[in-house]
Amino acid sequence: MIVFADILSALITVGVTIVLLRTGWTFREMGQAFSAAFNETTDREGLKTADVFFATTGNYLSLSAAFSILISVIIRGSFKTQGVLKELP
What we know:
This protein is mostly helical. It contains three helices and no strands. The N and C termini lie close together (11 Å). The model has no long low-confidence stretch (mean pLDDT 85).
């Protein structure tokens, strides 16, 4: 069984997501959102902020994953037309 591991797509997905998250939150606020889930003394407002952060993270991940799939298809197609890849599954 041949598995195609596309490291570039994974890096694009993670990188674009972090850049998009950084436009709305500081790294400290991101850390607070993660710690809010494990801290029993977090108030209601902190939990709401964490909820918005994680909902936004999911949306950004979906967007950047779709973008990286598109880039991967374009790169893979250009390799095929240039003769770099002989057979594609």
